[in-house]
C-alpha cells in the first residue's frame, strides 16, 4: 500500500488510511479544503492530527502503513511543533533559506522574460511556449509575493516580536519560544500556496497570536492547522474536523433520524470530510454539540441493549412454547383438529419476527461509547514538611545574566502564582531558578530543608525512546510507588498506549507522561511551564481544576489566554526579565 500524490490548488485526501502495526489511526479519510478555507483539526492527543498534517505536506511517516490518495499545491509549507533546526544554525541563515524558493521563482521569471523577448521566439510554437512560460512564472511570482519579500520579512519579525534579535545569533542561543516564532516567520516568509500548521500558537503571547490570526484570515490558499487554543480556533477556523474515533457512533446517531437541530454538525462551504466530521460553527458551539451528541449516543446504546435483552428473552420463551415436547391428549385431539394448524402458524410468525428483529439489531447496534479519557487528579502521598505555615522558598535579589532580575519572591505552602509576560521575558528562567536547574549569577534562592520541587518543562525529551510509558514510569518513580499509584489510574494515557514505545507517541502524549512522572509523587512546590501546550482542551481544563486543590504551592508560567482569564490566584508579570507588575485576583 502507498500514497498516490498529485498537485492541485486544493488540499485533498481521498480514502486515506494510516496504521502503526495493528493500531489503526484513521481509515478511509476523505478531506477537501479549498483556497481561502481554514480548517482546524481537533481531537484527543494521539488521534493522528500531526500525522495527517505530515502526510498532507508530502512527508513520509516512519513505521506507518499508509494508503490513499493525496493532492496539494506544489508549494505547501508545514510548521512542525518542534523546529527542525540545529543549535548551530544562524538565525539569519534560517530566514534566508526560507526565501530560497522565492528567489528561485524570481530567477525563473527573469529567465522567462528574457525568453519572451528573444526574437527567435517571436512567432509560432516557440513564441506560444515562451508566452505560456512567462505567464506561469508571473503567476507564481505573484502568489509568492516575490517583490515584497524584504518588507514582509521585516513585518513578520516585528509582528512576531523577534525583530530585535541579532541575526548572527545561533538557534541554540535563543529561547524555545523564540525558536518557534522564527520557524513561523520563516514559513510565512516563504509564502507557500498552502499552509499546514501544527499547534501554531504555542509560545505566542497575545500580540503575536493576534498578528498570526490576522495573517491567516487574509491567506489566499487553503490552510489546515491543529490547535488546542480555543480562542484561536474560534477566531481563525472556517470549519473544524474532529478526528476523535469516538465520534463515529455519535455521528451515525445524528444521521439516523434522532433529530439534528440547529447548530448540528454540517459541512462548511468548500470543506468536505468523511472519517472525521466537519463542523461549520465555532469551537465553543462545537463543544456543546459534541456533548449533546455523546449524550444521545449513550441513550441510544442503553436503549438498544435493553431491547436486545428483551428480544433474546422473547425468542427463548417463544421457542420453548413451540417445542414444549408434550404430545396432545385425547381431549386436545378434537380441538387441535381445528386450531392446531392456526396456532402453530401464529407462534412461528412471532418467533420469526423476533428472530429477525434480534438479528438486525445485533448486526446494526451502535457500539458502546468509549469511556472518555479523564484526568483522575492529583494522587495522595505528598510528605508533610512538619510546619503548616512559613515559607517554602524565597528568592532575594537574584539575577541570571540579562535574562532575569528579581528582587524578592516568596513561595508559601498555599501559593497559587501565575507568571506572565512575552516570550523571552524570563518566565522559564524563573521556574528554572526555583527548581534549582538554573544558578543565579547574583543573589540567593533559599529552599526549606527537605523541600521537593517538581517541574513540568515545555519541551519533553526521553533518553530512551524505545521504553514504554509503563516501564519509564516504574523506572522513574520506583516499583513500589508505581504499584501504589499506577500510571493507568491517573487518566492521562489510554490503556492501548501504556506499553507502546514513547518515541512513537505524539508530543501531547509524551507531555502527559512527563506530567505523570511529576504528580506520581506530588512535590511540595509544583512548577509548570506552559502546561496547556500540546494538551487537548478537555485535559487542560481538568488539569487546571485539579491544580486549584493541589496540596502544595503551584507556580505556572503561561500566556494561555483562556487560562489567564480564569485565573483566581496571584499574578506576576515579567518584562525583559524584570517584574513589570503583580496582582492578586479578587
Structure description:
This protein is 41% helix and 20% strand. It is α/β, with parallel strands linked by helices and 586 residues long. Among the domains are: 87-191, P-loop containing nucleotide triphosphate hydrolases (Rossmann fold, 3-Layer(aba) Sandwich), CATH 3.40.50.300; 393-584, 3-Layer(aba) Sandwich (Rossmann fold), CATH 3.40.50. A six-stranded mixed sheet has the order 6-7-8-4-9-11, sandwiched between helices. Strands 16-17-18-14-19-20 form a six-stranded mixed sheet, with helices on both faces. Helix 16 links the parallel strand 17 (525-529) and strand 18 (553-557). The radius of gyration is 31 Å and the shape is flat. It starts with a strand and ends with a strand. GO terms for molecular function: ATP binding; ATP hydrolysis activity. Residues 11-270, 373-586 form the ABC transporter domain. Keywords: ATP-binding, Coiled coil, Nucleotide-binding, Repeat.
Spell out the key features of this protein:
Rossmann fold; 41% helix; single chain; 6-stranded mixed β-sheet; 586 residues; alpha/beta; ABC-F family ATP-binding cassette domain-containing protein; nucleotide-binding
